[in-house]
């Protein structure tokens, strides 16, 4: 009897597994519709990549927003440009929405800005062949924005967005968030509070991975003061160690005592030390003056901290504070922290979304989808909404060299990724 029950259950599983990997009649139409958009979507990507939208180029970011404004209006979305206060020096954000009552309420997240400012020599979209194109922000993340739009356009063209509830949020300052965060991320967080699911379209790591967790990011600064004196007296009770030796002690202690915990990393990005220093936080640059026969009286380091949870962040900060407080003779030091991106933890809700995406990928003939290592991903806007809504990220285009003059986007895979996104969205808005 037990064997018969097991055989019956096995047959049911095989039937379910077979059905799970099949596209419905409507889904097959969605795939065909997306396939007709291949050249159109690539041309659209080229158009927006060729508009410089470095974070500080407010005019350029706004111009890209205008292109999307026209595009989303054409498929029936209500659009809005959200201005930021002038003193924040950020362009603002593009939002588009459908306010229906059917299925899951979706928040689709992208960003319009890139790391390549107007003075960058890397400015234009250029195909090297049918598969690969170079371009500033082509993959991070204008390609992801294109995936969002053309997936929705395919559904709209087939009249499948009727009564759907979808909000598209393309921020204008993801690469360098405007401060304070309470203003620059206010609308994004409010949209998340009204959503059931958030999907982020940052760079994809392939068809077989998606992101259910991302590390948070915050800044830290160590400032050291030493006693200015003739170098012949260094290490004496009167003169002490000087600011640069004290800074060296602190950084080495960070390396030896804080390093090693899984998903926790910290990096000193700039270091200045000498008799006098000047640092410009707007340009992340500075200069220093000192002489080899004078003990350095000042030093400063700016760095970043990555973490998988608030608890991990606070534990690391406590260790760093303790290290900074144990000063060498005749020196004093202080450390300060600035919050930037919170962590996106690996929740059960995120895993459930991953399972749905896995079924979509299998039904399209791709390999299964597994969770990507959060230690290999940077921070992103989806982290700001992780406390309010279940989410997945890493759903954008594929490519290499993000944030470098060799950034590429894989054009051959883009249409297949749009197909997957369209089916994924369709299944989510069809759920009760």
How confident is the prediction overall: mean pLDDT?
94
CATH superfamily of the largest domain: Zn peptidases
Overall, the morphology is: elongated
Strand content: 15-25%
Give the oligomer, counting copies of the same chain as homo and different chains as hetero: single chain
The helix/strand class is alpha/beta
CATH fold group of the largest domain: Aminopeptidase
Q: What would CATH call the class of the largest domain?
A: Alpha Beta
Quickly count the helices.
Answer: 11
Describe this protein's structure.
The chain has 432 residues and is of the alpha/beta class. It folds into two domains: 23-214 and 344-429, 3-Layer(aba) Sandwich (Aminopeptidase), CATH 3.40.630.10; 217-340, Alpha-Beta Plaits (2-Layer Sandwich), CATH 3.30.70. It has helices spanning 2-20, 25-35, 38-49, 58-74, 138-157, 181-184, 186-193, 243-258, 310-325, 348-363, 411-429, and strands spanning 78-82, 93-99, 102-111, 126-127, 132-134, 164-171, 197-200, 209-210, 216-225, 265-274, 276-280, 285-289, 298-307, 332-341, 370-371, 390-392, 408-410. The model is unreliable at 1-19 (pLDDT under 50).
């Amino acid at each position: 009897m037990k064997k018969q029950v097991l055989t019956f259950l096995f047959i049911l599983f095989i039937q379910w597994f077979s059905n799970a990997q099949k596209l419905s009649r409507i889904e097959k139409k969605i795939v065909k519709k997306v396939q007709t958009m291949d050249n159109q979507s690539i041309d659209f990507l080229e158009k927006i990549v060729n508009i410089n939208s470095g974070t500080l180029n407010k005019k350029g970011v706004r111009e890209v927003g205008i292109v999307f404004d026209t595009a989303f209006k054409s498929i029936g979305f209500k659009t809005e440009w959200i201005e930021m206060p002038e003193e924040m020096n950020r362009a603002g954000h593009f939002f588009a929405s459908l306010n229906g009552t059917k299925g899951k309420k979706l928040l689709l997240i992208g960003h319009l800005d890139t790391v390549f400012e107007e003075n960058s020599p890397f400015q234009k979209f250029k195909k090297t062949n049918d598969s690969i194109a170079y371009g500033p922000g082509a993959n991070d993340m204008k390609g992801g924005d294109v995936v969002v739009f053309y997936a929705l356009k395919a559904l709209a063209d087939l009249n499948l967005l009727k009564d759907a509830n979808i909000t598209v949020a393309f921020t204008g300052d993801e690469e360098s968030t405007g401060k304070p965060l309470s203003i620059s991320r206010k609308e994004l967080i409010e949209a998340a509070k009204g959503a059931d699911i958030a999907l982020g379209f940052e760079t994809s790591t392939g068809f077989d991975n998606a992101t259910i967790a991302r590390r948070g990011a915050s800044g830290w600064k160590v400032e050291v003061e030493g006693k200015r004196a003739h170098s012949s007296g260094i290490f004496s009770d009167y003169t002490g160690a000087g600011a640069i030796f004290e800074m060296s002690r602190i950084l080495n202690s960070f390396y030896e005592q804080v390093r090693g915990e899984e998903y926790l990393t910290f990096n000193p990005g700039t270091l200045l030390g000498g008799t006098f220093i000047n640092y410009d936080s707007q340009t992340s640059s500075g200069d220093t003056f000192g002489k080899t026969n004078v003990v350095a009286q000042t030093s400063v380091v700016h760095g970043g901290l990555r973490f998988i949870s608030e608890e991990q962040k606070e534990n690391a900060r406590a260790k760093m504070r303790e290290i900074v407080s144990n000063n060498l003779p005749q020196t004093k030091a202080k450390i300060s922290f600035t919050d930037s991106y919170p962590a996106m933890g690996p929740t059960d809700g995120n895993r459930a979304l991953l399972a749905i995406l896995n079924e979509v990928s299998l039904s399209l003939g791709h390999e299964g989808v597994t969770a990507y290592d959060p230690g290999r991903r940077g921070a992103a806007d989806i982290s700001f909404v992780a406390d309010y809504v279940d989410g997945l990220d890493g759903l954008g285009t594929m490519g290499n060299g993000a944030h470098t003059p060799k950034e590429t986007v894989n054009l051959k895979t883009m249409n297949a990724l749009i197909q997957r996104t369209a089916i994924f969205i369709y299944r989510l808005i069809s759920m009760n």
